[in-house]
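Final report, Chapter 2: Outcomes

The project's central promise was a pipeline that accepts a single protein chain and returns its three-dimensional structure in a standardized token representation, suitable for archiving and comparison. That pipeline is now operational. To close this chapter, we reproduce one record exactly as it appears in the project archive, with the input sequence first and the structure output second.
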Amino acid sequence: MGWNFMLVERLTVGQARIVDGLERLAVGLEYHYGEGAAPYVNVTVENTAFKQYKLVNVFLDVIEIQIIEPTEILGKAVFHNFFPQDDGTYKAIAISDLDLASCVTDSSYGLPVLVKTMFSAYYLLNECGKTIQTTADFSKSQYVMVYSHPGFGCKAFPDGPAYNCTVAFTSTSSTFGYIFYGKYFDTAAACDGYSLRVTDGTTLDEDICTDIKIGSGNATITLRGQALAKTFKVGFSFAFWN
């Protein structure tokens, strides 16, 4: 998970208790594209139905993957997307590690991916200065993803001249919370000079240049500064639940 849906595998025991049971909530949800979206074909693997899309690109050399057998598909289908391999296995990546809606293509030369579930999404850099009420989104999706930018997972984070972007995410639910996943934002090198901070129901203006953070309550996210070395960065993501 992250909210990488492989996150439980990366959490400490104490952190895992916080997200215990969330996986069960997502079972059975599917996202249907509207008119004008990239085409897909219906496929079945091990009696599990998927939509097969084509992608313009995906950073499989950077994003964490699992190599799985066809018989493992059913147990992972709710939380992963799958890339068929020539030897009959699949590369599985967490749903939250790919902004599928911005990465699909109608080209027959695209990279095929099998998709079971998709969640509502926002892009931080597209929403600067806004307060976003997410309650309505949860009527359509069990989780709401917030990606750093459109194309997370297939297009590199855009190092601009300088950012000063603040976005607030709110909900009427008393159980509103999130998981932040920053591993793909060069956290080992202090986020390449960017300042990334959050204020939520339990923390005030906290530095979240870190791999993982779990928070609760309404959250205000701020990205400031500019890249120092302009290293390659996939980006960062938040997954909110109600």
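Archive annotation: The mean pLDDT is 87.
This record, like all others produced under the grant, will remain available to the consortium after the project formally closes.
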